[in-house]
Prior knowledge:
Oligomer: single chain
Shape: flat
Number of helices: 0
Order of helices and strands: EEEEEEEEEEEEEE
Number of strands: 14
Radius of gyration: 19 Å
Helix content: under 10%
Largest sheet: 8 strands, mixed
Amino acid sequence: MIIGGYDELADIELLTTSLVITPNAGETVTITRTSQVEVSDSLMPLQIKNEAFIRGGAGRVWFTQSNTGAAVAEIVTAENSNAAASSEIRYYLMDENGNVLYAKAFKQSQGDHIVTLTNRRTVARIPAGQMFTSEPMDLFVPANAPDTVYVRLEIDHIYNSLGQDSRPGHFTCAPLKIKTSFDF
Length: 184
């Protein structure tokens, strides 16, 4: 979760979230949870980009990962000398209830900022103040997919240098309208 504009926050803060449900007119159910969250200054914006998604066909998706920090950041994009997809980055196509309709591990072994390391893992090495744009990937769209779906992208770890320190990754989610072949 990203909440900007609060310079006075401590490293750990309490966050209270509430879910309000109205099952019937005049009835309200409120579920409230309070938890501790880690606060940091280093925002690394992650965005999903896409072309049209066709029911019973596919949709093309890619992402951008910005590095607003002062040091190089790395994310694992392929493994086993580029023979395998990353075990740390994946896409999910989901319905509005969070049910997974399709999942696909991300793989990119060539391009700007892409480096294969001696440990046979490939990373996107994103210089400070720059952005990495992934190659597009096709995601299968089931024939029974609802009109609105969500693409979720998860990155498990962001490294300053792979094999040394890392910080937890992050995720982003974007809603999409599904088209049928005759919508064009």
